[in-house]
Amino acid sequence: MNDKDLELLKFYRDSGIDYVLEDKKQVQEEEKVVEQKYMLPSDWVVEAKKIADRCTSVEELKKAIESFNGCEVKAMATNTVFADGNSQAKIMLIGEAPGMNEDLRGIPFCGASGDLLDKMLAAIELDRTKVYISNTMFWRPPGNRRPTDLELEMCRPFVEKHIALVLPKILVLVGGTATYSLLDQTKSISRLRGQFHIYTNQYLDMEITTAVIFHPAYLLRQPMQKRLAWQDLKQIKEYINNNIAP
User: Fold this and answer.
1) Locate the Uracil-DNA glycosylase-like domain: which residues (predicted)?
2) In this predicted model, what pLDDT tens digit does every residue of 126-163 receive, in sequence order?
C-alpha cells in the first residue's frame, strides 16, 4: 500500500466512514477479466460472434477488435492491424495476416509487399485513397507462420462484419489465406484467379462480386507470375469501370 492509499484511509477514518462501496463498473470489469481467463478457445469463437453482432460502425468494430483477447498471438504482437485506406470506398481488399512491417506500423501491406501492392493499384489508376484494405487476421502470428484454422475461425465474425459495414461493390481477396477463409476454398490461387466469384456472409443480405489475386509477397518470390497478375488487374479494372460510378 502506497502513501496515497494510506492518506485516503486516514481521511475515511477521520470522516467517520467505515466502508467504501466499490465502483460497480470496475467490479464488473474485474469479474469479466476473471471469467475470460478460463474461457476455452471454442468459447472465444462464440464470444467473437456476439461482439461482432453488436457492432454498428467501422469505428466500433475497430475498438472491439483492439480489446478482444481471444487470440493468443495478440499477446506477442506489437499492434492490432485493422485497416488502411478509405472506408467509404467501394473497392475492398482483404489480405492474409500481418507480417513484421505491418505489426510494427499497425497498417496492412507495408514494406516490400506494400510497395508492390501500391504499384499494382496504380497500374489500374487506384491508390489507398480509393480503396479500403484490411486483413483476414489482425495480429502477426509468430515467425510469420500461416494462421491456424482456429485463429481464422475466431477472427472470421469480425471480418464478415467489417465487410458488411463497408459494403463494397467488389471484394478483392489477396492471397491464399484470405481465399481459404472467406470463400471456403482449398484450391490454389492459380486455379481460382482469372474469374469472378460470389461472396456473402451472415451479416449481408446481398452478394458481392469477388476477385482473387496473387499476394504481392508471392509475386516478389515468383516474378514470372506478374504477367498473370496483370491480367487479373485488368479484369478488375474493367469490372470497376463498368459497374462502379467514379
Assistant:
1) 82-234
2) 999 999 999 999 999 999 999 999 999 999 999 999 99
The residues spanned by each domain of the chain are 40-243
Residue pLDDT, tens place only, 33-87: 445 555 787 899 999 999 999 999 999 999 999 999 999 999 999 999 999 999 9
Confidence of residue 28 (pLDDT cuts 50, 70, 90): very low
Q: End-to-end alpha-carbon separation of the chain, Å?
A: 63
